[in-house]
Each structure stands twice: as C-alpha cells, then as structure tokens.
C-alpha cells in the first residue's frame, strides 16, 4: 500500500528531521555494544553517535550523516521517490523492500542530494546500511549515477559515504551492472577535473568496495569499519589460514596502503572542509 | 570422447547400447542393421531434444566442463603472431590472466582473458582462473598500451571470481577491480568482451566494460556464482541449481535483459565438442563487432560505452511519496 509521506515535495529539507531521529538508540540510557559503557542517549547523540568511553562508532542513518555534515537548511534531496522493481521476479523481494521501507522510512539504500559543508558546495550520496544491508541494486546505482551527473553539471565536488554489504542478490546481473554504470559516470567526473571523495564506513564490502568506494581522489574511512572485497568466512574457507584480528578493518587497509586517512567522526566535517577548501580554486 | 555430463547420461547410455549391438552383430554374424538404424534415429532425436532444451543448470555444467576451451585454446584459432606479455610492473605476474598482442585478420589487437587450468597441476599454477590484484593491474597495463597504439582490445571472460584471499585483500583486490571499471570506461579504442565460460561477479566484470559484450550460448554471467547465491539467499549452497534457475544467468536471459549484445551459438552439446568450429563462430562475431566499432571516433567510443551502461537497471517512481503504508 502506498501512503503519501511527502505529499508536498519540499525543496529544502531540514535534516535530521524529528522522524529520522527516532532511528538512533531508544531510551534514556544506551549501552555501548563494544565496551558496555552506559551513556545518556542524549549525550551519545550529541557526540555524533560515538561512544564516549571506547570511541565505538555507531552506524548512522543517511539523514543523521547528512545532518552531521551539511550546513543546516542547505540540503536538497534528489530522486527521493525512486524505488526498486523486481526485474528477476525474485520471490519475496518486493515484500522485503516493503518491510525495509517501513523499518527505515527511506525508499532505498542511498540518499543523494546537494548542499554545503561549511559553505563549500558538494553533491553528496550517503548509503544506509539499515536498508537491505545497504546493498546496491538498480536504484542505488541509478541514484548515485544521477548524483555524479549532477556534480558534473554543477561543477561541484562529489562526496560519497559508503555503507554496504555489496551487490543486491535479488537483482542479479543488473546489480553487477551498477558497478559499471557508476564507474562510467565517475570516469566522466574525473575527466572534467572534478573532485571525488570516498568515505568508507562500516561495512563497505563486495561490489561496492570493488567499485566507486575504492576509486576516490581521496579514499577515507571511519575508524574500525569493516572494508573488503571478499567475506572473512569465504577467505577462511578458501585458504584455511588464520586471519589477523584487524583483518579488513580501516586500520588494516591504512597499513596496507589502501587508504589516505582514517578519520574519526568528530573530525570528519573539519577534515572534509579542509580538503574542499584546498580544491576550491579550480584551475582553468 | 569428451567427458559426459549429468544431463547427457541418457545419450551416453543409448550410444553404449548401439555400440554393444554393433559388436554383437560382428561377433555373431546376425544382421541387426534395422535395429541399429532405429536406435541411431532415436539417438539423434534425443540429442536434439536434450541440447535444445538445456536448463540453466545444464548450461552451468557445460560452462564448467573440464574440456571446455579456455582463453589460450581460442587464441591460436583467432589470432596470428600472438605474443604473450607478462607482469603488472608493480608486484608480480598473475597467471590467472593472460594477455598479449597479435593480429586479427591482418589488424593489430590486444587480447586479454582469464585463464583457468586444464588439469590440476595447471589449475594450481593459474589459481583456478581466479585472479589476484596484480592480474587485473596487468590487464589494465595492457589496455593502456593498446590505447597508446590505437589497437582494439578483445577480452575473453572466464572466471569463478576474483580470488578471495588474504594476500589479495592486502594488495587491494577491490581497488584493482574498481580501477579497471573506471579506466575501461574511458578507453578510446574499441573494446569487445566475450564471456566464454563462467563470468562471476566483479572478478569477471573487471575485464568486462566493453563497447560490445557477447556471450557464448552455454556460458553464464552473474553477480555471484550459483553456489554463492544459494548460500547467501537460502543459507544452503546445495540449492545452487535453484539459484541458477532464478538468477537469470544464461546468455539468452541476459540478452533479454539487455546486458549483452549477441549470443554466440555453440556447437551441439557445447564448445568442447569442436573448438575449431566454435572459434570460427567467435571469429565471425568479432569481425562484425569490430567492423561496427571501427567506424566510431575515439569520443564516440567513450560516449557509446557511457550510454550503454547508463541504461542498465530497472526502477520506478512513487510520485514524490514514500511507498509504505
């Protein structure tokens, strides 16, 4: 059943909305899943969903992320009303999409749009791991591709926050093709001399890791995020070898030369602002 | 005699019966010509019926046939003056991908393909056709070289996937694949890709961003192997057959979905029955493709690739509202 949640299409959305705030941990107090430290939920939110004791970074919804980075009142969302079909007629897929829409109150696993970060204009795409594990199907690929095209049109930098388990199995080969589709768009962006920043957050794996996430002019990551191509279990079964504890974490990737920098959440906006500032005077 | 597959068993049994009758006839001197002729007719009908009604899973089995021609089997049929080139100039040489230069009907080309082994020993050397990052980086190096010298690039795809291992992760398997996708998008020479066997996931796609993408009739191309899909979707890798049926991974399916351009018909029963004839069919397809792409300018080739991939996917809109109740 369809119900008009955004009957009027607002040009500017104030983010995060009250509705989106419901997605953060409920209750007065919250226990950190890592160190079991108990905090006031309010304090946790104020701390950008980072544990005050052990710096565990809670997953952020797309809108929470946008709210933490984009100057208030500057965000315009693109293609909010784009939804998936069931191209392979995969049993149960539409039901799963429906249930995730209800659970997350977003239409798909990525939110795209434009806005400013400390007055620097950007086009931004933020994936949301709560929706089908952030997996990439046709809609995710199309929204990201359109966002890249917008960045080309507006001649602004393109910024992506990835959070994805990889390709969307239920869309089969079409989900694989989204890797190619986003890549052809990124090539065009790059050829125009425009900046592309990729920030990998927990988790960034499979087809997303093996496409746009890894080819930023800058590849950044949040601390302790899981980032990798193949799943740990698959690797263990294949090579029958013990894997280091930090295998496929941000820190592991940094050590192996795959990342430019690991950026804690409380420094994210500031660091991105600096990078944007350094690239703001475009060479003609 | 080529190895028999599960769905071919009735054919093999009938063939055996005919052979028995023939030897019986010779030994005992009894005339069984009529019986044999009738069985041969039945055999021919059975073969037609079996090979024209192959299920997706039957095709997966053919695509995995140990005797199915590989990249290196096709190269001598398709190209002359082939010289294999090695190494990524960064880390090493990955034998799961072969690449080199050669002539195609008098025209210089670069050829790159995944390469599995034909026996256990070779499979170990070639890592069962599952490339490491250095394989993809070698491929990219050769593509860039082709671009520099304005040679068309022909990629033959045949892999169970990029290698899932510790060393591959350490050296940036994701980045190597992703880089190829982006760089292939911008190549200013014709790129023709043919899936000749198995085409699994990003590991196949990393050689697969072409102006034209063709597929041998019995090859498969998917976001994940049928076994992988089954274990993710149903937590049961034995349901691979079911996954093969539901994931739309065969050449005819992908043609219908608009993901590939041409289905290259296979010789009856599969390419392994006649590699020479199969090569002639691939050759014809390549010639036609190349003739079309040669007419395009560098810019048009890049633009055609952009438009081709931009179109892929299926989605809809809900008129500014969220679809939920």
Would you write up a description of this structure?
The complex is a heterodimer of chains A (284) and B (325). Chain A is built from 10 helices and 11 strands. Chain A has helices spanning 18-21, 41-46, 62-69, 93-104, 138-154, 172-191, 206-209, 232-239, 250-255, 265-278; strands at 29-31, 38-40, 76-78, 82-84, 110-117, 120-127, 158-164, 196-205, 218-221, 227-228, 261-262. In chain A, strands 3, 5, 6, 7, 8, 9, 10 and 11 form an 8-stranded mixed beta sheet that branches. A two-stranded antiparallel sheet of chain A has the order 1-2. The longest helix of chain A has 20 residues, at 172-191. The longest helix of chain B has 20 residues, at 9-28. Chain B is built from 14 helices and 9 strands. Chain B has 325 residues and is of the alpha/beta class. In chain B, strands 1, 2, 3, 4, 5, 6, 7 and 8 form an 8-stranded mixed beta sheet that branches. The chains are: A alpha/beta (284), B alpha/beta (325). The interface between A and B is large, with 77 and 60 residues.
């Amino acid at each position: 059943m369809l119900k008009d949640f955004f009957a009027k299409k607002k040009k500017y959305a104030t983010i995060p909305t009250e509705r989106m705030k419901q997605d953060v941990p409920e209750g007065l107090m919250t226990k950190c899943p890592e160190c079991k430290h108990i905090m006031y939920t309010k304090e946790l939110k104020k701390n950008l969903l980072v544990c005050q004791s052990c710096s565990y970074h809670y997953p952020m919804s797309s809108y929470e992320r946008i709210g933490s980075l984009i100057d208030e009142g500057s965000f315009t969302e693109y293609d909010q009303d784009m939804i998936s079909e069931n191209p392979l007629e995969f049993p149960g897929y539409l039901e799963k999409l429906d249930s995730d829409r209800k659970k997350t109150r977003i239409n798909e696993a990525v939110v795209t749009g434009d806005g400013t970060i400390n007055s620097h204009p950007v086009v931004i795409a933020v994936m949301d791991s709560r929706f089908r594990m952030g997996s990439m199907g046709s809609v995710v690929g199309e929204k990201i591709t359109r966002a890249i095209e917008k960045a080309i049109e507006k001649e602004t930098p393109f910024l992506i926050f990835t959070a994805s388990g990889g390709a969307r199995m239920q869309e089969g080969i079409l989900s694989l093709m989204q890797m190619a589709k986003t890549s052809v768009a990124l090539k065009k962006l790059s050829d125009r001399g425009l900046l592309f920043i990729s920030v990998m957050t927990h988790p960034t794996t499979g087809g997303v890791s093996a496409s746009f996430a890894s080819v930023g002019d800058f590849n950044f990551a949040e601390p302790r995020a899981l980032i990798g191509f193949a799943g740990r279990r698959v690797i263990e079964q294949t090579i029958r070898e013990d894997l280091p504890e930090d295998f496929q974490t941000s820190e592991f990737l940094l050590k192996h030369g795959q990342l430019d920098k690991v950026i804690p959440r409380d420094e994210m906006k500031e660091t991105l602002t600096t990078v944007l500032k350094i690239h703001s005077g475009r060479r003609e | 005699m080529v190895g028999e597959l599960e769905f071919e068993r009735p054919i093999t049994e009938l063939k055996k019966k005919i052979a028995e009758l023939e030897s019986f006839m010779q030994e005992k001197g009894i005339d069984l010509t009529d019986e044999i002729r009738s069985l041969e007719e039945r055999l021919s009908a059975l073969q037609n019926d079996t090979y024209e009604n192959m299920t997706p899973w039957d095709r997966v089995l053919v695509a995995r046939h140990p005797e199915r021609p590989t990249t290196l089997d096709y190269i001598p049929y398709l190209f002359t003056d082939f010289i294999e080139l090695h190494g990524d100039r960064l880390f090493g040489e990955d034998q799961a991908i072969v690449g080199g230069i050669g002539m195609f009907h008098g025209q210089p080309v670069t050829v790159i393909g995944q390469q599995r082994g034909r026996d256990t020993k070779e499979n170990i050397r070639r890592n069962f056709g599952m490339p490491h990052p250095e394989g993809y980086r070698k491929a990219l190096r050769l593509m860039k070289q082709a671009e520099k010298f304005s040679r068309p690039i022909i990629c033959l795809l045949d892999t169970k996937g990029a290698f899932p291992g510790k060393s591959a992760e350490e050296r940036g398997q994701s980045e190597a694949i992703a880089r190829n996708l982006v760089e292939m998008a911008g190549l200013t020479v014709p790129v023709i890709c043919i899936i000749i066997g198995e085409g699994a996931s990003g590991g196949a796609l990393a050689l697969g961003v072409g102006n034209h993408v063709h597929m041998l009739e019995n090859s498969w191309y998917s976001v994940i192997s049928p076994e992988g899909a089954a274990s993710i979707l149903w937590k049961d890798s034995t349901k691979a057959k079911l996954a093969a049926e539901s994931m739309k991974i065969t050449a005819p399916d992908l043609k219908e979905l608009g993901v590939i351009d041409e289905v290259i018909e296979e010789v009856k029963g599969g390419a392994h029955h006649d590699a020479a004839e199969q090569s002639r069919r691939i050759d014809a397809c390549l010639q036609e493709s190349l003739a079309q792409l040669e007419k395009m300018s560098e810019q048009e080739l890049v633009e055609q690739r952009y438009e081709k991939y931009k179109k892929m996917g299926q989605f809809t809109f809900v008129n500014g509202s969220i679809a939920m109740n």
